[in-house]
C-alpha cells in the first residue's frame, strides 16, 4: 500500500467575486499571473504566491506518484475560512470553495480526497454545511484552531465537534490567523513560532476546557504540524496540572490521560522530533502529512518516516497509511 498524506491544501484557479456573492468586505481573490502561477490577494494586499500544483489534479498526481503517495487529503487553504465575517457570509463562502474543491479532486480517480470548510462561528450553519458537503462527496472537514478569541472549547465549537462525532465526520485542525507584531514579522516568525504555539494552545483547550470530557470518544480529530509544541511540553503541562489544581487541574483527568483521544500529522522534518511524537502519543496516533504544495512542506512526502530507523516495519506501515485509513474511516 502506498502512503496516505492527510495534510495538503488546494487553491482553485478561479472563484467568483466574493463581494457580490457574500457582501462588502475584505475578501480573498486571485490574480492570475500566468498559466501556472497566481497570487492570492486579501483586498489589494498580496498574501501568497501559488503554482498550478495548488489547483491542477494532473500536477498533484504526478507529484504523488514521484513520492509514492497513494491517496491525498485535499483541504482548503485557511485564508478562505472567513471566520471574521458573519455566519451567513462564511456559509456562502464555504459552499463556493467546497464545490470548487470537489472540482479540483474530481479528475483524481478517487486518489484526491476532499475535505470541506465550514462557517465555524455559527455552529448550526457549520453542522448544516458539514452534512451538505459530506452528502456531495467530501470525506471530512478542516477547521481553524480558533474563531477570534474563542478556542476549541467554545460552546459552539463543542456542539460542532459533537455533531461530527455523531455523524462519523473526521476533523482536521489547522492553525491559522497567528498573532502579529514587529518581532513576529521577521524571518517568517509567525509560521516558525506562532503556528506551533497555536496548535499547542488548542490541544490544551481541548483538555482543560473539558472538550474531551464532553465529546464522545468516537470523534476522529487530528492536529496539523505534529501537534505543534505540545509533545515537547507535555511534562510541563502535567506538572502544572498537579501543582496548580486551582488554575490548571480543571479537567476530569490529568493531561496524559487524553493522549489516545487525538492524532497528529508527521510534518516535523526530523527523525528526533518524530521519535518524540511516537514516544509521547504512540505510533498509532501519528499519520503522514506534508503541507503540500507549500514551500514549508515535506518533500518527498513521508521521508522523515522512512529515515526513522527507530521505527519497526509495523510502525512505519501504521504511520504511512494504516492510521490514516482508520482516521478516514476506510
Features of the shown structure:
about 325 residues; three-stranded antiparallel beta sheet; TIM Barrel; alpha/beta; 11 strands
Give a structural overview.
Its EC number is 4.1.1.45. It is an enzyme of class 4 (lyase). One of its GO terms (cellular component) is cytosol. Pathway: Secondary metabolite metabolism; quinolate metabolism. The chain is α/β, with parallel strands linked by helices and 330 residues long. It has a single domain, classed as Alpha-Beta Barrel (TIM Barrel). The chain contains eleven helices and eleven strands. Strands 1-5-6-7-8-9-10-11 form an eight-stranded parallel beta sheet. The chain has a three-stranded antiparallel beta sheet with strand order 2-3-4, with no helix packed on it. The longest helix has 20 residues, at 189-208. The protein is globular, with a radius of gyration of 19 Å.
The gist of it:
Helices cover 38% and strands 18% of the residues.
The whole-number mean of residue pLDDT values reads 96
How would you spell out the order of helices and strands? EHEEEHEHEHEHEHHEHEHEHH
The number of helices is 11
Q: Kindly name the structural category.
A: alpha/beta
N-C termini distance: 13 Å
Largest sheet: 8 strands, parallel
- Whole-number tally of structural domains: 1
Shape: globular
The CATH class is Alpha Beta
What share of the residues lie within helices?
Answer: 25-40%
CATH architecture, please?
A: Alpha-Beta Barrel
Got a strand count?
A: 11
Strands of the widest sheet, in order across it, are 1-5-6-7-8-9-10-11
- Unreliable spans: none
User: Any idea what the radius of gyration is?
Assistant: 19 Å
Briefly note the CATH topology name: TIM Barrel
The name of the CATH superfamily reads Metal-dependent hydrolases
Pathway: Secondary metabolite metabolism; quinolate metabolism
Protein name: 2-amino-3-carboxymuconate-6-semialdehyde decarboxylase
Domain Amidohydrolase-related: 4-330
Enzyme class: lyase
Amino acid at each position: 500500500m502506498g502512503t496516505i498524506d492527510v495534510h495538503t491544501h488546494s487553491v482553485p484557479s478561479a472563484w467568483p467575486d466574493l463581494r457580490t456573492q457574500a457582501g462588502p468586505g475584505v475578501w480573498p481573490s486571485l490574480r492570475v499571473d500566468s498559466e501556472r502561477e497566481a497570487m492570492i490577494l486579501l483586498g489589494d494586499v498580496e498574501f501568497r504566491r501559488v503554482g498550478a500544483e495548488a489547483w491542477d489534479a494532473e500536477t498533484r498526481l504526478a507529484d504523488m506518484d514521484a513520492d509514492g503517495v497513494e491517496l491525498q487529503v485535499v483541504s482548503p487553504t485557511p485564508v478562505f475560512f472567513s471566520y471574521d465575517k458573519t455566519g451567513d457570509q462564511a456559509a456562502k463562502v464555504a459552499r463556493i470553495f467546497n464545490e470548487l474543491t470537489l472540482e479540483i479532486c474530481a479528475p483524481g480517480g478517487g486518489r484526491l480526497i476532499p475535505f470541506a470548510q465550514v462557517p465555524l462561528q455559527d455552529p448550526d450553519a457549520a453542522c448544516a454545511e458539514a452534512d451538505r458537503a459530506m452528502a456531495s462527496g467530501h470525506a471530512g472537514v478542516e477547521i481553524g484552531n480558533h474563531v477570534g478569541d474563542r478556542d476549541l472549547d467554545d460552546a459552539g465549537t463543542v456542539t460542532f465537534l459533537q455533531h461530527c462525532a455523531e455523524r462519523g465526520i473526521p476533523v482536521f485542525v489547522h492553525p491559522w490567523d497567528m498573532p502579529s507584531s514587529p518581532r513576529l514579522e521577521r524571518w517568517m516568525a509567525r509560521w516558525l513560532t506562532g503556528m506551533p504555539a497555536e496548535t499547542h494552545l488548542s490541544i490544551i483547550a481541548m483538555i482543560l476546557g473539558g472538550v474531551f470530557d464532553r465529546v464522545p470518544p468516537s470523534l476522529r480529530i487530528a492536529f496539523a504540524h505534529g501537534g505543534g509544541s505540545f509533545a515537547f511540553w507535555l511534562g510541563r503541562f502535567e506538572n502544572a496540572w498537579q501543582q496548580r489544581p486551582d488554575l490548571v487541574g480543571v479537567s476530569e483527568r490529568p493531561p496524559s490521560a487524553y493522549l489516545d483521544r487525538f492524532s497528529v500529522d508527521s510534518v516535523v522534518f526530523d527523525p528526533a522530533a518524530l521519535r518524540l511524537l511516537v514516544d509521547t502519543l504512540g505510533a498509532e496516533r501519528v499519520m503522514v502529512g506534508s503541507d503540500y504544495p507549500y514551500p514549508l512542506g515535506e518533500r518527498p512526502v513521508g521521508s522523515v518516516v522512512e529515515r526513522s530507523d527507530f521505527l519497526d516495519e509495523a510502525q512505519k506501515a501504521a504511520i504511512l497509511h494504516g492510521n490514516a485509513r482508520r482516521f478516514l474511516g476506510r
